[in-house]
C-alpha cells in the first residue's frame, strides 16, 4: 500500500530532495500495525510525504530484523520508532 507523493523536502544545503518516505513494517492481523497505519497515513497526507507498507511475513530479512518490534516505522530508511507511533513526533521528523 502506498501513500501519495507530496511536497519536495529540502536538503540542508537548500536543494530540493523530493518527498520524504515513510515505511511501515508490520504484518496482517496485527492490531498495533492497524493503529500505526492510520497514524502514518494521516501524518504523511498532511506533510506531503510518500509512505509504503512492508509485510514481514513476505520478507525473511525484514522478519529477522523486526519481528519483535512491529510495527516499525522508518523515515527515509532510518528507524524512527516501533510499537506505537506518536503523530507529533512523526510530524517533527518529517519537517526536519
From TrEMBL:
Protein's name in the database: Glutaredoxin family protein
Coiled coil: none
Source superkingdom: Bacteria
Pfam families membership: Glrx-like (PF05768)
